[in-house]
Amino acid sequence: MSSRSASRKARRAQARAERLEAEAHQREAAERRRRIQRLAIVAGVAVLLVGGAIVISQSGSDADGDGDASAQSNEVAALYDDIRQQGNTLGSPDAPLTMLEFADPQCPFCAEYSANVLPEIIDRYVRPGELRLELNLLTFIGPDSERAARVAESAGLQDGMWEYVELLYREQGAENSGYATDEFLRELAAAVPGLDVEQVFAERDSDAVSGRLARAQASATRLGVNSTPTFFVGDARGNLQPLDVASLEPDAFISQLDSLTSGGAGE
Amino acid sequence: MTDSRLRLAGLGLALAGIAIASYLTWVHYADTQAVCVGGGGGCERVQTSEYAEVAGAPVAVIGLIGYVAMLAAIATPGESAMLAAALGGLAGFGFSAYLTYLELFVIDAICQWCVASAVVMTALAAIAVARYLRGPT
Question: Does the predicted TM-score (pTM) go above 0.90?
Answer without folding.
Answer: no
